[in-house]
Specification:
single chain, mainly beta, five-stranded parallel beta barrel, 4 helices, 32 strands
Amino acid sequence: MKHILRTALVLALCSMTLSLGAKDYKVTDFGARGDGITLNTRSIQAAIDCASANGGGTVIVNPGEFVTGSIYLKDNVDLHLEEGAVLLGSLNPWDYVRDPIVKWTAMVFAVGQDNIALTGKGVLDCRGFEVANRMVQYVHLGLFKDDLELDRPQESNRPEIIHFLKCNNVLVKDVTLKDPACWTQQYELCNKLTIEGIKVDAKAYWNNDGLDVVDCCDVIVRNCYIDASDDAYCFKSHHVDGVSENVLVENCIGRSSASGVKFGTLTKGVFRHFVFKDITIFDTFRSAINIASVDGGRVEDVLVDGLKSLNTGNPIFIRFGTRNSNSNIPCVKDIVIRNVYAEVPRGKPDAGYIYEGPVPLPPRNVCPSSILGLPDHRIENVLIEDVEIVYPGKTDTAIAFRDCTPEVLEAMPELEKSYPEFSQWKEEPAWGFYVRHADDLTFKNVRITVADRDYRPAFVFDDVDGVVFKNVQIVEPTAPKGKKEIVKNKTRHFSKKK
């Protein structure tokens, strides 16, 4: 953990300084009309190009609804949406560019630019549901080529709202991002990235991630609110030599029909020096915090300090997998999770949202928090401190049953190639924490409560070397007398302290 305090301090002191000119350029002066009908792509692009060519400045979008296809931000330009201004995504799929370098489609691109910003109290509304369904119609008419896998156009053909690649000194502040057709915003191979005070409403279509930060360094995400049908705050690595480091996420709220905060799924490179502070996750289908390496990546030095997880399917999920391999020596190590309060519901936490997470089959009882490595890829050095989790209990062995005998525990499938999510084993053998193939774990000031009877023990440790319990409370008011709440199989160096 030697880098965490340094990382937090450095990032907290960072601020964005954009070297922009003082001149303003109004899009209306370049012929743009905010009537909700006129296609303004060329006018808006002309304003951006003019500002950049003259040393930079602020391109102002006045109040009104300005329809646009793909536009490109350029060096030293702040695209500023005044309050009441809306960049309204065109409903014509051919108005969007599938950039030959980025290989994705978006409303707002930036490729290899420096000192760029997207600011203001306005809205970028992609109208993703409408444009995606028009694409489907055009595919069936033979006008648009797409395989329609899972009855939807492929991800890179559906417009994101923002896609920035290889940009330096980037600021996205205060805007509202609404209804993408794919991911909401993707920042790839960028440096000095600040995302502050934004609101995301991304429930219009499939794969609506709220935020994707891919192989970026020196990142601040602060005071944001994301409501997404897919992962809310997502950190990925698409490149074997990619590095994601010095990342601070603080005072953020998320809701998702997938996971709240997630590493991956694609995890090829290095993730190090991450700090998550004061995060609230609610009504979320999968995990509040999902820290995983399944594609050969290295995940190390991660601090979660302050997490409130309400009506969320799983509080903590830490996972090793080998879905893909590469030249890196993978690891998941040096993880601190502290100051957590979590409530896990019995029912489906995202029920009623437009795009819900899938109903797991076959049925299972409520899953515990999990720390799950592999025999030859062990999770190392994890501290769980000042944590309270409330589980519903009331398990039904007629729905699912998993015994805790050594034979059953050792026969649990590794599922190292599977998609990493907490329910991939269906029924797990514990109700509180299930830990497997891990070394050097500390549980300090931890209280787990089950509201109604659960046939399983609170903790199961299988093939674990080094566990310290310090002031760990297990509360199960309806437990039968003499029930064993801690099961250890092939677990060494277990110590329990008050």
